[in-house]
Amino acid sequence: MRGIILTALMSSGLLAGAVWLAPEGRDVDGDLIVGSIGRAADAAAGVEMMMASNAESGEICLLERAHDASSPLDLLSPGSDCDAVWPGLGGAQRWRLTAGGGIDLIERNGRPVLTLARPDGAAFRGTGSGQSVVTLTILE
Length: 140
Fold this sequence. Notes:
Elements: H1 2-21, H2 40-43, E1 47-54, E2 60-66, E3 74-78, E4 94-97, E5 103-106, E6 112-116, E7 123-125, E8 134-139
Antiparallel strand pairs: 1-2, 1-8, 2-3, 3-4, 4-5, 5-6, 7-8
């Protein structure tokens, strides 16, 4: 629940900042992008920064996802503080898109550390036992 509230507050803050920075008497050129997790086609574009958050503990960390053209799995570089968000998340090295549109964050040995559901809005949400407190949001 905190993750949803945090995402809503961040979105409101970005929108308020865009309105405040807009020149008076003129429309803002372009769109304000709040964020969403891209599909497989978006992954081909390069590197994405993401934020993982745990609504129960309030912990957050940053992760970097990079497309790996030689593999069906993308590379994942979690921050050193990601174990505080979810046990083992700091050791996740790969990102796998599942047939249902969700993702698995995987350790070197191939074991999923965290399984997240298809995005509903701007974030993936954990689906495994106790994982529903974890969300993953792209930062743009």
